[in-house]
């Protein structure tokens, strides 16, 4: 008799990259969790303020929160397709969540080509200038507070997967 080990959903789609929140760096978990809480049907924004205060400090919390909101609003305003996310307490990481991390990591490292590819994958549109600008500002604020986002092969795989098949839903 042999035991069958199940891999988390999506792990093969990310080229062996992280499929669970626990596998992400602190800065990545913060962004995924904050985004999930911001768009959750119940208001969890107080939790975001508290966590941003903890991670950015009292002095930088408000500007960081404003930049995060600007990023979310730019994404919302320019997206022409349905984005798929997990619930705030879900341990999994979705394809679109990996693309958001890829966008922010590319912006933080100055990778304009990677940023444009990720922004296009998220929005399905060439109208991405506000999203690119917001991602640069937010990722710079993160870097100023020692919250660095790793450049992951998994984010690039997620961008390719979204671009190849944007209509296929992927949500747990």
TrEMBL record:
Superkingdom of the source species: Bacteria
Identification of the protein by name: Uncharacterized protein
Organism of derivation: Hypericibacter adhaerens
């Amino acid at each position: 008799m042999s035991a069958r080990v199940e891999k988390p959903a999506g792990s093969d789609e990310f080229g062996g990259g992280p499929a669970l929140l626990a596998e992400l760096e602190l800065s990545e978990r913060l962004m995924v969790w904050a985004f999930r809480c911001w768009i959750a049907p119940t208001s969890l924004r107080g939790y975001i303020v508290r966590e941003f205060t903890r991670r950015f400090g009292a002095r930088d919390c408000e500007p960081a929160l404003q930049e995060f909101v600007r990023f979310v609003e730019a994404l919302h305003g320019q997206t022409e397709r349905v984005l798929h996310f997990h619930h705030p307490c879900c341990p999994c990481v979705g394809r679109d969540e990996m693309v958001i991390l890829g966008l922010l990591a590319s912006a933080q490292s100055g990778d304009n080509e990677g940023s444009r590819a990720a922004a296009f994958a998220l929005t399905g549109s060439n109208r991405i200038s506000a999203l690119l600008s917001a991602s640069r500002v937010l990722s710079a604020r993160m870097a100023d507070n020692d919250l660095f986002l790793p450049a992951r092969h998994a984010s690039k795989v997620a961008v390719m997967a979204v671009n190849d098949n944007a209509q296929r839903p992927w949500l747990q």
